[in-house]
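User: I'm putting together a small comparison set for a docking exercise, and I want a reference complex before I start. The sequence is below, and the ligand is S-adenosylmethionine. Could you produce the 3D structure with the ligand included, as structure tokens?
Assistant: Of course. I'll restate your input first, then give the structure tokens for the complex.
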Amino acid sequence: MNELERRVADEIRRRGPVPFSEVMELALYDPEQGFYATGGAAGRRGDFITSPEVGPLFGAVVARALDEWWKDRGEPDPFVVIEAGAGAGTLAIAVLAAHPMCASALRYVLVERSAALRARQADHLPLEDPALAFAPDRAEDEDGDVHPPEVATGPIVVSLDSLPRLHGFAVVIANELLDNVPVDILERRDGRWHEVRVGLELDELVETLVPADGPDIAARDGARVPVQTAAARWVRDARDCGSVVAFDYADTTASMATRDASEWLRTYRGHRRGDAPLRGLGSQDITCEVAVDQLLPPARVTQQAAWLRAHGIDELVEDGKRVWEERKHIGDLEAMRARSRVNEAASLTDPESLGGFFVLEWD
Ligand SMILES: C[S@@+](CC[C@H](N)C(=O)[O-])C[C@H]1O[C@@H](n2cnc3c(N)ncnc32)[C@H](O)[C@@H]1O
């Protein structure tokens, strides 16, 4: 048993079998021994590849989408964009490098709960005091006179460990955050639902069933489904901040009940599938497909390939091809970047992989 497993075992000795979500929470986010505290991350040198980590093209498309939303709203200044689950800041870097039209109004708020990843953001992003991201509605001078605030020039980039308490005007984007929010698990046994808790047997963490209420869906004996209460709460909190766009792998509870649980509750380590979720706690990512029907109903659900096309990925690829033709005889970084757009677009829109992800939008 590792240190984290010993702590969970002690907890079980004290309290009896604990919910799976508590163990997943510690495995991923324990500030000392959790996966994201001990070097776990997205990226080529990390444990899994996400759309921003494929290359800068995903961020360039997001930058175009931000410009559309900014214009739709009448070009507000400040324009607050919150990127939740921002990791080490790769998407933010690509969005800013694309020089969106909204840049001068942009307040880009990275929200990342892992301190280790937040520390890496400052390596490549000019982080400023978080207070600067949220301009006051009005300012008072020393005589007590009220003036419109002095508007700073963006982009202003700040970092927080949790969502700010804003009401209604921000845009929240989140790539592969919801699948990393701790879940509980139910199993159908003898015609009724049970909660899969984590117990202890001969000093080993084991699954143990406790009778529980569950969804009213047809399910065979042995079927499992996730319970995504925390993800649903996150969507509600994010929705309070403004409109929300979440990119993730998703399904429905009823469909997940027909699949093997190891297909939708997965572990990753060093770009490979890891061990069973209760093994090697803290040493591997634990991720669960998002049961869309358990969340606040989205205004729109699109597949990532279609969403990227709707927001101009094809034009960006055509630009890339043109720049490559113009500069291939020079063979500089700009030429190489332009050429790599073609491959990036193929990965981001591949229906068998990232292109098949869902884009869930709440207005
Ligand atoms: C799978 S990674 C994705 C990182 C990045 N968005 C990307 O696409 O490469 C999920 C990230 O979300 C963070 N995270 C999970 N829950 C969070 C929450 N409630 N608030 C902020 N960050 C969270 C994790 O620490 C982790 O860095």
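The chain has a mean pLDDT of 94. The first strand starts at residue 18 and ends at 19.
User: Thanks, that's exactly what I needed.
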